[in-house]
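Translate structure to sequence.
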């Protein structure tokens, strides 16, 4: 190799080792600014029998919280993501499945944070103070119960279309440290993957989730 080739090779190696990892475009990879868990709720039903890989999804935060840099994320902020995998149970399948990932958090109309998030826990909808909560929650019938701390919350059977109702005044309180499925029968969560022995995994409107996320770089919304 001639001197010019040696010099160019040395410069390339230096650029890859200085200042972090570079993307193929030459731009630096996003830098993590923090990590944490926060609560969200489903507004539009997520059904593994109707969703497909790559479909866009959206949920919203159910409480305000501060980011590691002090930025306040207001209640109702939109968390965006996509479907990683989705399937209904068919003949020969042991279960139905739904995997979601989240990559953007809209903090305001002009400010967006890149995130890398997955589902940490799932809760049934909060009880409507005006009457029984009519949103469907959980999975199709079949399989054994999963999770703990149901707090007397009613259960939904997606096969017969029954509604979520509270069987006692007590509601399952969302805990950002919780993991797995809390108070919903026939639904399991393992390492971000939701499964059910029923024909589909169905998260109805109002279903609450805890999202565990790594917070990355800021960007504007165009």
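Result:
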């Amino acid at each position: 190799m001639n001197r010019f080739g040696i010099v160019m090779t040395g410069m390339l190696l230096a650029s890859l080792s200085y200042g972090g990892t570079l993307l193929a475009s030459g731009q630096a990879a996003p830098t993590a600014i923090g990590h944490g868990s926060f609560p969200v709720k489903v507004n539009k039903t997520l059904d593994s029998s109707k969703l497909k890989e790559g479909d866009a999804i959206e949920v919203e935060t159910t409480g305000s919280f501060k980011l590691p840099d002090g930025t306040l994320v207001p209640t109702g902020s939109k968390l965006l993501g996509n479907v990683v995998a989705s399937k209904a149970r068919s003949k020969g399948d042991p279960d139905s499945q739904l995997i979601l990932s989240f990559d953007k958090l809209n903090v305001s109309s002009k400010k967006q944070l890149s995130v890398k998030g997955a589902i940490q826990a799932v809760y049934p909808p909060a009880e409507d103070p005006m009457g029984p909560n009519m949103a469907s929650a959980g999975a199709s019938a079949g399989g054994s119960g999963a999770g703990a701390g149901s707090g007397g919350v009613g259960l939904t059977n997606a096969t017969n279309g029954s509604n979520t109702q509270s069987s006692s005044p007590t509601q399952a309180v969302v805990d950002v440290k919780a993991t797995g499925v809390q108070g919903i029968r026939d639904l399991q969560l393992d390492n971000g993957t939701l499964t059910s022995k029923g024909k589909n995994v169905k998260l109805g409107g109002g279903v609450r989730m805890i999202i565990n996320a790594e917070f990355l770089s800021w960007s504007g919304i165009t």
